[in-house]
Amino acid sequence: MPARDRLLAVLVAVLWGLNFLAIHATLGQFPPVFAGALRFAVIAVPTILFVPWPRVKVRHLLGYGLGFGTGQFAFLFIAMDTGMPTGLASLVLQASAPFTVLLGAVFLRERVTPHQLGGIALAVAGMVAIAWQQSGHAALLPMVLTLLAALSWAFGNLSTRKAEPDNPLHFTLWMSVVPPLPMFALSLVMEGPAAQWRSLTTLGTPTGLTALGGLTYVVLIGTVVGSGLWTTLMRRNPAGVVSPFSLLVPVVGLTASFLFLGERPTWLEVGAAVVVIAGVLLGSLRFAPKRELVAV
Q: Which residues cross the membrane (predicted)?
């Protein structure tokens, strides 16, 4: 993986780590599934009108939209709305990395090298240590929902690899056309039109304005910029090489939650975050095979 792509992957991790603060602000105003529907609807309308079709098979676009878009954010938003701490959510969601490596090996026949497995294991060990430290702050249901969000993200990653879009940004934007309808329908059933209307008619309050700022960040930075870069990286590199960088997201998320939400990490969590970074770097590197010495 080129150094430029590694830097881009780190940038995406930072953008997505801060994305959890924006989601936290958004959920202070909107019902969770309705917030997810709005997030993608804001992008879907101008995409249909102005963005060219990305020239990929429809089934791959649907797979990406249902996995990365619908499944991931429906599960994640409901989990955070039902009590999942912001920092812990950013951590548990990164289970998508080992999920992607496993699914990539099974469905795409991607080769996983021993040092990649070692890096993933090291990063996951750090993630598990943080999860164990914070497990007392989250109920079982939000944890399970966040893991389902991670699994959905992993399936979306595989669809991206199979699609091989010629224009990753167009592909990312058109992915946003898929989630709004199923998420609006799910919101109507779970949350009801009264809750949807109330959230829209109170946007002039301080909470509403903060939520609009959070939604703007989620749409423009988290989705358009972050997902566009991630799709580019997944197109240029094997899924098992790119996906470990998502394990950097909880480091950013936990730090941001500490600075802005008062969620204080322990020394164990700080040490585990360092282990996560080391594991990501190890898992992303490709070592050239040793040359054999030939007698002359």
A: 7-27, 33-54, 61-80, 86-108, 115-133, 139-159, 171-189, 209-230, 242-261, 267-288
